[in-house]
UniProtKB/TrEMBL annotation:
<dbReference type="GO" id="GO:0008801">
    <property type="term" value="F:beta-phosphoglucomutase activity"/>
</dbReference>
<dbReference type="InterPro" id="IPR010972">
    <property type="entry name" value="Beta-PGM"/>
</dbReference>
<feature type="binding site">
    <location>
        <position position="10"/>
    </location>
    <ligand>
        <name>Mg(2+)</name>
    </ligand>
</feature>
<dbReference type="GO" id="GO:0005975">
    <property type="term" value="P:carbohydrate metabolic process"/>
</dbReference>
<dbReference type="InterPro" id="IPR023198">
    <property type="entry name" value="PGP-like_dom2"/>
</dbReference>
<feature type="binding site">
    <location>
        <position position="171"/>
    </location>
    <ligand>
        <name>Mg(2+)</name>
    </ligand>
</feature>
<dbReference type="InterPro" id="IPR051600">
    <property type="entry name" value="Beta-PGM-like"/>
</dbReference>
<keyword id="KW-0597">Phosphoprotein</keyword>
<feature type="binding site">
    <location>
        <position position="12"/>
    </location>
    <ligand>
        <name>Mg(2+)</name>
    </ligand>
</feature>
<dbReference type="InterPro" id="IPR023214">
    <property type="entry name" value="HAD_sf"/>
</dbReference>
<feature type="binding site">
    <location>
        <position position="26"/>
    </location>
    <ligand>
        <name>substrate</name>
    </ligand>
</feature>
<feature type="binding site">
    <location>
        <position position="146"/>
    </location>
    <ligand>
        <name>substrate</name>
    </ligand>
</feature>
<keyword id="KW-0413">Isomerase</keyword>
<dbReference type="InterPro" id="IPR006439">
    <property type="entry name" value="HAD-SF_hydro_IA"/>
</dbReference>
<feature type="site" description="Important for catalytic activity and assists the phosphoryl transfer reaction to Asp8 by balancing charge and orienting the reacting groups">
    <location>
        <position position="146"/>
    </location>
</feature>
<protein>
    <recommendedName>
        <fullName>Beta-phosphoglucomutase</fullName>
        <ecNumber>5.4.2.6</ecNumber>
    </recommendedName>
</protein>
<feature type="binding site">
    <location>
        <begin position="10"/>
        <end position="12"/>
    </location>
    <ligand>
        <name>substrate</name>
    </ligand>
</feature>
Amino acid sequence: MRNIKAIIFDLDGVLVATAKYHYLAWKRLAKELNIEFSIEDNERLKGVSRMNSLDIILDIGGLTLDNDAKIKLAAKKNIWYVEYISKLTPADILPGVIDFLESIKINGLKIALGSASRNSMLILKNLKLTDYFDAIIDGTKVSSTKPNPEVFLKGAFALNTPPCQCIVFEDAQSGIDAAINAGMYCIGIGSKNILKKANLVLSGFSDMTFDKLELLID
Ligand code: B16
Ligand code: MG
């Protein structure tokens, strides 16, 4: 059995379902640019940084813009996105998350956030989850984005825990690659058909406790 000492959570898609808000904000921007952007296209943006997401959308529309224009567009999208996430409340936390966090604490493990989002602090605050985290590594604290392992390695370092004693929860393929690249055990949240590289896949945290999880991991 693994000697797990710390858990690192991705944010969007793991603790809260924000993908729809990213989608609505990107869709509005795409419309202004006359780019067709579908909900299927939005799947490609999960776990991807803001600027890389914009690059994907511009690529879909066959549009090339200079860096200044791109920075302005990304900022515009973020204003719309922040309008949505400003309305988040603890009722938006995904099912089972709070009980699972409590069970981790009871077992004496440390908890970190490992998210690409530069809005992580605002989201955690609105969900009233901030105090659960011993370390928060988000998009403002990394120079390389997932699948680069930096966000998770910084999380492990902040928790003073070797990567092999950390578990990562991720909903995006890029994040699963990042966790594996960090040498961590990775649990996908979502569909087994999509998150093929994860060590284990769960549909969510409903009825999950750390004791139950320990029986599932190899
Ligand atoms: P922001 P995660 C990621 O968060 C999202 O999955 C991704 O869709 C988004 O583009 C990225 O954060 C950046 O978000 O624009 O708020 O900085 O899944 O890594 O928690
Ligand atoms: Mg995610």
